[in-house]
Design a protein that fits this description.
Blueprint: H1 4-9, E1 17-18, E2 21-22, E3 24-25, H2 36-47, H3 59-79, E4 87-90, H4 93-108, E5 114-118, H5 127-136, E6 139-143, H6 153-158, E7 164-170, H7 182-191, E8 195-199, H8 203-206, H9 211-214, E9 218-222, E10 233-237, H10 239-242, E11 255-259, E12 262-265, H11 279-295, H12 297-315, E13 321-324, E14 333-338, H13 344-353, E15 356-357, E16 359-361, H14 366-372, E17 377-381, H15 388-405
Helix pairs in contact: 2-11, 3-11, 4-5, 12-15
Catalytic activity: (sulfur carrier)-H + L-cysteine = (sulfur carrier)-SH + L-alanine
InterPro entries: Aminotrans_V_dom, Cys_dSase_SufS, Cysteine_dSase, PyrdxlP-dep_Trfase, PyrdxlP-dep_Trfase_major, PyrdxlP-dep_Trfase_small
Protein name: Cysteine desulfurase
Length: 406
Protein backbone atom coordinates (compact mmCIF):
# COMPACT_ATOMS: atom_id res chain seq x y z
CA UNK A 1 0.00 0.00 0.00
CA UNK A 2 1.27 3.47 -0.91
CA UNK A 3 1.74 5.37 2.37
CA UNK A 4 2.40 8.99 1.47
CA UNK A 5 2.80 10.02 5.11
CA UNK A 6 5.53 7.43 5.62
CA UNK A 7 7.21 8.66 2.44
CA UNK A 8 7.03 12.27 3.63
CA UNK A 9 8.77 11.25 6.85
CA UNK A 10 11.73 10.12 4.72
CA UNK A 11 12.29 13.69 3.45
CA UNK A 12 13.59 15.88 6.29
CA UNK A 13 13.07 19.19 4.51
CA UNK A 14 9.31 18.63 4.34
CA UNK A 15 9.04 19.17 8.09
CA UNK A 16 10.36 22.72 7.99
CA UNK A 17 8.44 25.98 7.82
CA UNK A 18 8.78 28.81 5.32
CA UNK A 19 7.57 32.29 6.24
CA UNK A 20 5.96 30.81 9.33
CA UNK A 21 3.92 28.30 7.31
CA UNK A 22 4.48 24.57 6.71
CA UNK A 23 6.46 24.12 3.51
CA UNK A 24 4.37 23.01 0.54
CA UNK A 25 6.99 22.12 -2.05
CA UNK A 26 5.49 22.21 -5.55
CA UNK A 27 8.65 22.93 -7.53
CA UNK A 28 9.51 19.32 -8.28
CA UNK A 29 9.60 19.98 -12.01
CA UNK A 30 12.70 22.09 -11.42
CA UNK A 31 14.34 19.86 -8.81
CA UNK A 32 13.03 17.34 -6.30
CA UNK A 33 13.87 17.06 -2.62
CA UNK A 34 16.10 14.28 -1.29
CA UNK A 35 15.16 11.43 1.07
CA UNK A 36 17.28 10.80 4.13
CA UNK A 37 18.74 7.60 2.62
CA UNK A 38 20.27 9.67 -0.20
CA UNK A 39 21.57 12.28 2.23
CA UNK A 40 23.06 9.52 4.40
CA UNK A 41 24.67 7.83 1.39
CA UNK A 42 26.31 11.09 0.34
CA UNK A 43 27.55 11.76 3.86
CA UNK A 44 28.90 8.22 4.22
CA UNK A 45 30.61 8.35 0.84
CA UNK A 46 32.48 11.51 1.78
CA UNK A 47 33.14 10.73 5.46
CA UNK A 48 34.01 7.01 5.31
CA UNK A 49 34.39 5.73 1.76
CA UNK A 50 35.80 8.44 -0.48
CA UNK A 51 38.60 7.88 -2.97
CA UNK A 52 39.02 8.28 -6.70
CA UNK A 53 37.63 5.48 -8.82
CA UNK A 54 39.20 3.12 -11.38
CA UNK A 55 42.77 4.23 -10.75
CA UNK A 56 43.73 2.80 -7.39
CA UNK A 57 44.44 -0.65 -5.97
CA UNK A 58 43.95 0.30 -2.33
CA UNK A 59 40.90 -0.56 -0.25
CA UNK A 60 39.08 2.79 -0.45
CA UNK A 61 39.56 3.12 -4.19
CA UNK A 62 38.23 -0.38 -4.77
CA UNK A 63 35.26 0.32 -2.49
CA UNK A 64 34.46 3.62 -4.19
CA UNK A 65 34.80 2.00 -7.61
CA UNK A 66 32.45 -0.84 -6.67
CA UNK A 67 29.87 1.59 -5.27
CA UNK A 68 30.15 3.91 -8.26
CA UNK A 69 30.08 1.25 -10.97
CA UNK A 70 27.25 -0.54 -9.19
CA UNK A 71 25.02 2.38 -10.08
CA UNK A 72 25.27 1.51 -13.77
CA UNK A 73 23.36 -1.73 -13.22
CA UNK A 74 20.79 0.10 -11.06
CA UNK A 75 20.05 2.63 -13.79
CA UNK A 76 19.90 -0.15 -16.38
CA UNK A 77 17.22 -1.85 -14.24
CA UNK A 78 15.43 1.45 -13.68
CA UNK A 79 15.17 2.01 -17.44
CA UNK A 80 14.89 -1.70 -18.31
CA UNK A 81 17.97 -1.50 -20.53
CA UNK A 82 19.25 -4.75 -21.99
CA UNK A 83 22.73 -4.20 -20.56
CA UNK A 84 24.45 -1.84 -18.15
CA UNK A 85 27.04 -1.25 -20.89
CA UNK A 86 24.37 0.84 -22.66
CA UNK A 87 24.39 3.40 -19.81
CA UNK A 88 26.71 6.41 -20.01
CA UNK A 89 27.12 8.47 -16.83
CA UNK A 90 27.08 12.27 -16.99
CA UNK A 91 26.10 15.35 -14.99
CA UNK A 92 22.52 15.33 -16.22
CA UNK A 93 20.32 15.52 -19.29
CA UNK A 94 21.92 18.73 -20.58
CA UNK A 95 25.31 17.06 -20.82
CA UNK A 96 23.73 13.92 -22.26
CA UNK A 97 22.04 15.82 -25.09
CA UNK A 98 25.17 17.85 -25.78
CA UNK A 99 27.15 14.60 -25.95
CA UNK A 100 24.78 13.31 -28.63
CA UNK A 101 25.12 16.60 -30.53
CA UNK A 102 28.93 16.53 -30.51
CA UNK A 103 29.61 12.80 -30.51
CA UNK A 104 26.92 11.52 -32.87
CA UNK A 105 25.23 14.36 -34.77
CA UNK A 106 28.32 16.32 -35.81
CA UNK A 107 30.11 13.34 -37.39
CA UNK A 108 26.94 12.07 -39.06
CA UNK A 109 25.28 15.24 -40.33
CA UNK A 110 26.09 17.90 -42.91
CA UNK A 111 24.70 21.24 -44.09
CA UNK A 112 21.07 20.93 -45.11
CA UNK A 113 20.36 17.87 -42.96
CA UNK A 114 17.33 18.22 -40.70
CA UNK A 115 16.54 17.80 -37.02
CA UNK A 116 12.87 17.69 -36.02
CA UNK A 117 11.85 19.24 -32.67
CA UNK A 118 8.53 19.77 -30.95
CA UNK A 119 7.69 23.32 -29.95
CA UNK A 120 7.49 22.32 -26.27
CA UNK A 121 11.13 21.24 -25.89
CA UNK A 122 13.22 22.47 -22.97
CA UNK A 123 16.10 24.72 -23.96
CA UNK A 124 18.47 21.86 -23.11
CA UNK A 125 16.94 20.01 -26.07
CA UNK A 126 17.04 23.07 -28.34
CA UNK A 127 20.28 24.98 -27.82
CA UNK A 128 22.66 22.09 -28.73
CA UNK A 129 20.83 21.77 -32.05
CA UNK A 130 21.15 25.50 -32.64
CA UNK A 131 24.90 24.98 -32.25
CA UNK A 132 24.72 22.62 -35.23
CA UNK A 133 22.53 25.08 -37.13
CA UNK A 134 25.02 27.90 -36.55
CA UNK A 135 28.20 25.92 -37.11
CA UNK A 136 27.21 23.32 -39.70
CA UNK A 137 24.14 24.63 -41.50
CA UNK A 138 21.81 21.97 -40.08
CA UNK A 139 18.11 22.83 -40.45
CA UNK A 140 15.74 22.78 -37.47
CA UNK A 141 12.12 21.83 -38.20
CA UNK A 142 9.39 22.47 -35.64
CA UNK A 143 6.17 20.57 -34.93
CA UNK A 144 3.44 22.39 -32.97
CA UNK A 145 1.19 21.03 -30.24
CA UNK A 146 -2.59 21.42 -30.39
CA UNK A 147 -4.75 23.62 -28.15
CA UNK A 148 -4.72 21.04 -25.34
CA UNK A 149 -0.92 20.70 -25.47
CA UNK A 150 -0.99 17.29 -27.16
CA UNK A 151 1.68 16.34 -29.69
CA UNK A 152 0.47 14.15 -32.55
CA UNK A 153 3.09 11.47 -33.26
CA UNK A 154 1.95 11.30 -36.87
CA UNK A 155 2.59 15.02 -37.29
CA UNK A 156 6.16 14.41 -36.17
CA UNK A 157 6.58 11.50 -38.59
CA UNK A 158 4.97 13.48 -41.41
CA UNK A 159 7.68 16.13 -40.99
CA UNK A 160 10.38 13.60 -41.96
CA UNK A 161 12.02 14.08 -45.36
CA UNK A 162 14.96 12.38 -47.02
CA UNK A 163 17.17 14.98 -45.31
CA UNK A 164 15.96 14.22 -41.78
CA UNK A 165 18.61 12.59 -39.61
CA UNK A 166 17.29 13.06 -36.07
CA UNK A 167 14.12 13.64 -34.06
CA UNK A 168 14.72 15.20 -30.63
CA UNK A 169 11.60 15.13 -28.45
CA UNK A 170 10.55 15.25 -24.83
CA UNK A 171 8.77 12.30 -23.19
CA UNK A 172 6.85 14.67 -20.89
CA UNK A 173 6.57 18.43 -21.11
CA UNK A 174 8.00 20.27 -18.12
CA UNK A 175 5.41 23.03 -18.65
CA UNK A 176 2.23 21.33 -19.87
CA UNK A 177 2.65 17.90 -18.31
CA UNK A 178 1.87 16.40 -21.72
CA UNK A 179 2.90 12.77 -22.12
CA UNK A 180 4.26 12.15 -25.62
CA UNK A 181 3.77 8.84 -27.40
CA UNK A 182 7.49 8.46 -28.00
CA UNK A 183 7.16 4.77 -28.78
CA UNK A 184 5.08 5.51 -31.88
CA UNK A 185 7.55 8.19 -32.92
CA UNK A 186 10.49 5.83 -32.46
CA UNK A 187 8.78 3.01 -34.36
CA UNK A 188 7.89 5.23 -37.30
CA UNK A 189 11.28 6.94 -37.37
CA UNK A 190 13.12 3.62 -37.32
CA UNK A 191 11.19 2.49 -40.41
CA UNK A 192 12.49 5.61 -42.18
CA UNK A 193 16.07 5.29 -40.93
CA UNK A 194 15.86 8.32 -38.64
CA UNK A 195 17.42 8.35 -35.16
CA UNK A 196 15.43 9.54 -32.12
CA UNK A 197 16.67 11.23 -28.96
CA UNK A 198 14.17 11.34 -26.09
CA UNK A 199 14.51 13.84 -23.26
CA UNK A 200 13.31 11.78 -20.29
CA UNK A 201 14.03 14.38 -17.60
CA UNK A 202 10.39 14.75 -16.53
CA UNK A 203 8.97 11.39 -17.53
CA UNK A 204 11.45 9.16 -15.70
CA UNK A 205 10.45 10.51 -12.29
CA UNK A 206 6.70 10.27 -12.88
CA UNK A 207 6.11 7.00 -14.72
CA UNK A 208 7.75 3.65 -15.52
CA UNK A 209 10.22 3.85 -18.41
CA UNK A 210 11.12 0.85 -20.57
CA UNK A 211 13.77 1.85 -23.10
CA UNK A 212 13.59 -1.51 -24.84
CA UNK A 213 9.88 -1.04 -25.44
CA UNK A 214 10.20 2.63 -26.42
CA UNK A 215 13.02 1.96 -28.85
CA UNK A 216 14.75 5.35 -28.71
CA UNK A 217 18.34 5.54 -29.92
CA UNK A 218 19.16 7.89 -27.05
CA UNK A 219 17.19 8.31 -23.78
CA UNK A 220 18.48 10.91 -21.29
CA UNK A 221 17.67 11.30 -17.58
CA UNK A 222 18.79 13.70 -14.88
CA UNK A 223 19.42 12.85 -11.23
CA UNK A 224 18.28 15.96 -9.41
CA UNK A 225 14.69 15.46 -10.57
CA UNK A 226 14.82 11.79 -9.51
CA UNK A 227 15.23 12.64 -5.80
CA UNK A 228 18.99 12.34 -6.28
CA UNK A 229 21.88 14.82 -6.20
CA UNK A 230 22.43 17.60 -8.67
CA UNK A 231 25.32 16.96 -11.02
CA UNK A 232 24.23 13.37 -11.66
CA UNK A 233 22.56 11.77 -14.64
CA UNK A 234 22.82 9.21 -17.40
CA UNK A 235 21.90 8.50 -20.98
CA UNK A 236 20.89 5.17 -22.48
CA UNK A 237 22.38 4.59 -25.93
CA UNK A 238 21.64 1.76 -28.33
CA UNK A 239 24.80 -0.30 -28.93
CA UNK A 240 24.66 0.21 -32.69
CA UNK A 241 24.80 3.99 -32.19
CA UNK A 242 28.01 3.74 -30.15
CA UNK A 243 29.83 2.59 -33.29
CA UNK A 244 28.78 5.83 -35.02
CA UNK A 245 30.01 8.10 -32.21
CA UNK A 246 33.31 9.79 -31.54
CA UNK A 247 34.41 10.86 -28.04
CA UNK A 248 32.93 14.10 -26.73
CA UNK A 249 35.53 14.99 -24.06
CA UNK A 250 39.10 13.74 -23.87
CA UNK A 251 40.96 12.72 -20.72
CA UNK A 252 41.43 9.93 -18.27
CA UNK A 253 39.25 6.80 -18.20
CA UNK A 254 38.08 7.20 -21.80
CA UNK A 255 41.40 5.88 -23.14
CA UNK A 256 43.33 2.61 -22.97
CA UNK A 257 46.71 3.98 -24.02
CA UNK A 258 48.17 7.39 -24.79
CA UNK A 259 51.34 7.88 -26.83
CA UNK A 260 53.03 10.84 -28.47
CA UNK A 261 51.66 9.86 -31.87
CA UNK A 262 48.17 8.67 -30.95
CA UNK A 263 45.66 7.23 -28.51
CA UNK A 264 43.71 4.01 -28.18
CA UNK A 265 40.22 4.66 -26.87
CA UNK A 266 38.41 2.63 -24.24
CA UNK A 267 35.27 0.69 -25.05
CA UNK A 268 31.83 2.23 -24.57
CA UNK A 269 30.46 3.40 -22.21
CA UNK A 270 33.82 4.38 -20.69
CA UNK A 271 34.85 5.89 -24.03
CA UNK A 272 32.39 8.71 -23.31
CA UNK A 273 33.22 9.30 -19.63
CA UNK A 274 36.39 11.37 -19.47
CA UNK A 275 38.04 12.60 -16.29
CA UNK A 276 37.26 12.16 -12.63
CA UNK A 277 33.48 11.71 -12.51
CA UNK A 278 30.89 12.91 -10.03
CA UNK A 279 31.59 9.88 -7.84
CA UNK A 280 29.46 10.77 -4.84
CA UNK A 281 26.72 12.30 -6.94
CA UNK A 282 26.32 9.08 -8.91
CA UNK A 283 26.37 6.96 -5.74
CA UNK A 284 23.58 9.18 -4.42
CA UNK A 285 21.64 8.75 -7.65
CA UNK A 286 21.91 4.98 -7.32
CA UNK A 287 20.37 5.16 -3.86
CA UNK A 288 17.64 7.47 -5.15
CA UNK A 289 16.55 5.13 -7.95
CA UNK A 290 16.65 2.23 -5.48
CA UNK A 291 14.35 4.27 -3.25
CA UNK A 292 11.92 4.95 -6.09
CA UNK A 293 11.94 1.36 -7.32
CA UNK A 294 11.40 0.21 -3.74
CA UNK A 295 8.09 2.08 -3.69
CA UNK A 296 7.28 1.03 -7.25
CA UNK A 297 7.08 3.31 -10.28
CA UNK A 298 3.54 2.17 -11.02
CA UNK A 299 2.51 3.08 -7.46
CA UNK A 300 4.21 6.48 -7.69
CA UNK A 301 2.49 7.15 -11.01
CA UNK A 302 -0.91 6.15 -9.60
CA UNK A 303 -0.44 8.43 -6.58
CA UNK A 304 0.52 11.39 -8.75
CA UNK A 305 -2.37 10.69 -11.13
CA UNK A 306 -4.74 10.90 -8.16
CA UNK A 307 -3.22 14.26 -7.20
CA UNK A 308 -3.64 15.45 -10.80
CA UNK A 309 -7.29 14.39 -10.91
CA UNK A 310 -8.01 16.02 -7.54
CA UNK A 311 -6.34 19.25 -8.63
CA UNK A 312 -8.13 19.29 -12.00
CA UNK A 313 -11.52 18.88 -10.30
CA UNK A 314 -10.77 21.79 -7.97
CA UNK A 315 -9.34 24.01 -10.71
CA UNK A 316 -12.43 23.47 -12.85
CA UNK A 317 -14.35 25.48 -10.29
CA UNK A 318 -12.00 28.47 -10.56
CA UNK A 319 -12.87 30.20 -13.82
CA UNK A 320 -10.29 32.91 -13.21
CA UNK A 321 -7.37 30.43 -13.34
CA UNK A 322 -6.14 29.57 -16.83
CA UNK A 323 -4.26 26.26 -17.00
CA UNK A 324 -1.96 25.56 -19.93
CA UNK A 325 -1.98 21.92 -20.96
CA UNK A 326 -5.24 20.01 -20.54
CA UNK A 327 -4.64 16.54 -21.96
CA UNK A 328 -6.54 14.04 -19.76
CA UNK A 329 -3.53 11.80 -19.03
CA UNK A 330 -1.03 14.60 -18.42
CA UNK A 331 1.45 14.44 -15.58
CA UNK A 332 0.77 16.27 -12.33
CA UNK A 333 2.23 19.51 -13.67
CA UNK A 334 0.13 22.68 -13.79
CA UNK A 335 1.29 25.84 -15.52
CA UNK A 336 -1.20 28.64 -14.98
CA UNK A 337 -2.00 32.31 -15.08
CA UNK A 338 -4.63 34.29 -13.16
CA UNK A 339 -7.04 36.58 -15.02
CA UNK A 340 -6.21 40.20 -14.44
CA UNK A 341 -3.19 39.38 -12.32
CA UNK A 342 0.26 40.88 -12.60
CA UNK A 343 3.33 38.95 -13.69
CA UNK A 344 3.79 35.30 -12.72
CA UNK A 345 6.61 36.40 -10.43
CA UNK A 346 4.12 38.43 -8.36
CA UNK A 347 1.82 35.41 -8.01
CA UNK A 348 4.75 33.23 -7.01
CA UNK A 349 5.81 35.74 -4.36
CA UNK A 350 2.34 35.77 -2.80
CA UNK A 351 2.24 31.97 -2.75
CA UNK A 352 5.66 31.89 -1.13
CA UNK A 353 4.33 34.00 1.74
CA UNK A 354 1.95 31.10 2.43
CA UNK A 355 4.80 28.58 2.35
CA UNK A 356 3.94 27.35 -1.17
CA UNK A 357 6.95 26.92 -3.46
CA UNK A 358 6.15 27.14 -7.19
CA UNK A 359 8.19 28.12 -10.23
CA UNK A 360 7.56 31.30 -12.24
CA UNK A 361 8.89 32.37 -15.62
CA UNK A 362 9.34 30.76 -19.02
CA UNK A 363 10.60 27.45 -17.60
CA UNK A 364 13.36 27.30 -20.25
CA UNK A 365 10.75 26.91 -23.01
CA UNK A 366 10.90 30.09 -25.06
CA UNK A 367 9.41 28.61 -28.26
CA UNK A 368 6.48 27.12 -26.32
CA UNK A 369 5.75 30.42 -24.59
CA UNK A 370 5.76 32.16 -27.97
CA UNK A 371 3.43 29.47 -29.36
CA UNK A 372 1.01 30.01 -26.45
CA UNK A 373 1.24 33.80 -26.67
CA UNK A 374 2.48 34.14 -23.09
CA UNK A 375 5.44 35.87 -21.49
CA UNK A 376 5.48 33.64 -18.42
CA UNK A 377 3.43 31.32 -16.24
CA UNK A 378 3.47 29.97 -12.72
CA UNK A 379 4.00 26.22 -12.44
CA UNK A 380 2.99 23.85 -9.65
CA UNK A 381 4.60 20.45 -10.16
CA UNK A 382 3.87 17.52 -7.88
CA UNK A 383 6.00 14.60 -6.72
CA UNK A 384 5.76 11.31 -4.88
CA UNK A 385 5.50 12.99 -1.45
CA UNK A 386 2.82 15.58 -2.17
CA UNK A 387 -0.74 15.26 -0.82
CA UNK A 388 -4.28 16.41 -1.55
CA UNK A 389 -4.05 18.62 1.54
CA UNK A 390 -1.19 20.43 -0.17
CA UNK A 391 -3.33 20.87 -3.28
CA UNK A 392 -5.87 22.62 -1.04
CA UNK A 393 -3.20 24.88 0.51
CA UNK A 394 -1.96 25.81 -2.96
CA UNK A 395 -5.47 26.66 -4.17
CA UNK A 396 -6.26 28.64 -1.02
CA UNK A 397 -3.10 30.67 -1.68
CA UNK A 398 -4.28 31.21 -5.25
CA UNK A 399 -7.58 32.52 -3.93
CA UNK A 400 -5.63 35.06 -1.89
CA UNK A 401 -3.60 36.11 -4.93
CA UNK A 402 -6.77 36.49 -6.95
CA UNK A 403 -8.34 38.69 -4.30
CA UNK A 404 -5.26 40.90 -4.14
CA UNK A 405 -5.16 41.39 -7.91
CA UNK A 406 -8.92 41.65 -8.48
Amino acid sequence: MYDVNAIRADFPILSREVNGKPLVYLDNGASAQKPQVVIDAITRAYSQEYANVHRGLHFLSNLATDNYEGVRAKIARFLNAKSEDEIVFNSGTTEGINMVAYSWAMPNMKAGDEIILSVMEHHANIVPWHFLRERMGVVLKWVDVDSTGALDPQAVLDAITDKTKLIAVTHMSNVLGTKVDVKSICTGAREKGVAVLVDGSQAAVHLPVDVQDIGADFYAITGHKLYGPSGSGAIHIKPERFAEMRPFIGGGDMIREVAKDGVIYNDAPMKFEAGTPGIVQMIGLGVAVDYMMGHGMDAIAAHEDSLRDYAVAKLNGLNWVQVQGTTPDKGAIFSFTIDGAAHAHDISTILDKRGVAVRAGQHCTGPLMEHMGLNATCRASFGMYNTTDEVDVWLDALELAHELFA
